[in-house]
Design a protein that fits this description.
- The chain is mostly helical and 332 residues long.
- The protein has 14 helices and no strands.
- It is globular and about 65 Å long.
């Protein structure tokens, strides 16, 4: 039990580190969103490059198509995803971005259900309806308050947040599918390094342009210190170490807890965004967030029930004197 508690605390720590990505775009102003993304993932990619150089013998044993797929999935799931998150957070709100991206368990479930049926489609109706209602409430916030000049930015922020949600869902589903279908599983550290290089490669190419297109005031001492600090924190601590902590912790976390623990990332992100934006959430934002959280909660309840039902069916026959009760364990 103590080991499980430690793993849960480690997973929450990783989620909190990841959540800082939602507040960074507003915190580094006047630096551009592109500079934050390219700076962060250039450092993330360098961490991956260091690991790949040290593990070059094992890397040579991997088929080229798998190496290319690892780079591709890193580019889409990290670089493109955070481009959407960064511009969404500054066009709309870090709070709204975090809440909308937090609905990704449902899009992952929908995509995963097409690939391999995890639950009945009828069980997904209530979560999907609640989340759609929540997104609609979040998107009309500025219309309800009569701020037409902010409405366009709010809609753009919602659209980019939806893009981030779909991009992340694609990354999770494609990555999981590839790992399950490959006969020889890649070393987790090498795979993480390939993903990091996929995000970092694109970032390094665009970094000179990001620097050139950044407002001059960014290079004053204090703004420059802020952007460098945030890039180092997000790239090395948030991305690399956060991922490492999560991978290690997830090995000792029961399967039903994985989903709720991942969901805490966006909850942390929404909470952290409000002080940075120096405001409190509106009532429509609160209602929208609660609808989305309710949708995720309903989905998690069904998911836990299904996992337990499958474990009960696969448990040893009770009539067997030597039967051992089935235990919930992390199998990912």
């Amino acid at each position: 039990m103590g080991s499980t508690q430690k793993n849960v605390m480690a997973a929450l720590t990783a989620a909190l580190l990841w959540a800082t990505a939602f507040v960074a775009p507003a915190a580094v102003k006047p630096a551009s969103e592109l500079l934050l993304v390219t700076g962060r993932y250039s450092l993330f990619g360098l961490c991956g490059l260091y690991v790949l150089i040290r593990s070059r013998k094992q890397l040579k044993l991997m088929p080229l198509r798998r190496i290319l797929f690892g780079l591709y999935i890193g580019f889409v799931g990290y670089f493109v995803f955070y481009i959407c998150v960064s511009y969404s957070a500054t066009a709309g709100s870090g709070f709204i971005t975090a809440v909308v991206v937090g609905a990704s368990p449902i899009t992952i479930a929908l995509a995963g259900n097409f690939a391999e049926k995890r639950m009945s489609w009828s069980q997904l109706i209530a979560p999907v309806v609640l989340i759609l209602a929540g997104i609609n409430l979040l998107s009309v916030t500025d219309f309800v308050q009569g701020r037409s000049e902010d409405a366009g930015n709010s809609i753009l922020g919602i659209a980019l947040a939806l893009g981030a949600m779909l991009t992340w869902s694609y990354f999770v589903v494609r990555n999981a599918q590839s790992q399950r279908t490959w006969e020889t599983k890649p070393d987790p550290t090498i795979w993480a390094a390939l993903v990091a290089m996929g995000a970092g490669g694109a970032s390094m190419v665009l970094l000179p342009y990001a620097i050139a297109s950044t407002p001059e005031e960014t290079f004053s001492p204090y703004p420059l210190f802020k952007i460098i600090t945030w890039c180092v924190f997000l790239g090395v601590i948030g991305s690399w170490w956060g991922t490492y902590i999560w991978v290690k912790a997830a090995q000792g976390i029961p399967v039903p807890l994985v989903g709720p623990l991942l969901a805490t990332e966006t909850i942390f992100g929404a909470i952290l965004s409000l002080p940075v934006e120096q405001r409190t959430p509106t009532w429509t934002e609160i209602a929208g967030a609660l609808c989305i959280l309710a949708g995720i909660s309903v989905y998690m309840v069904f998911d836990v029930r299904n996992v337990r039902s499958k474990e009960a069916l696969s448990a040893p026959d009770e009539s067997d004197a030597d039967a051992v009760p089935a235990t919930t364990r992390a199998s990912r």
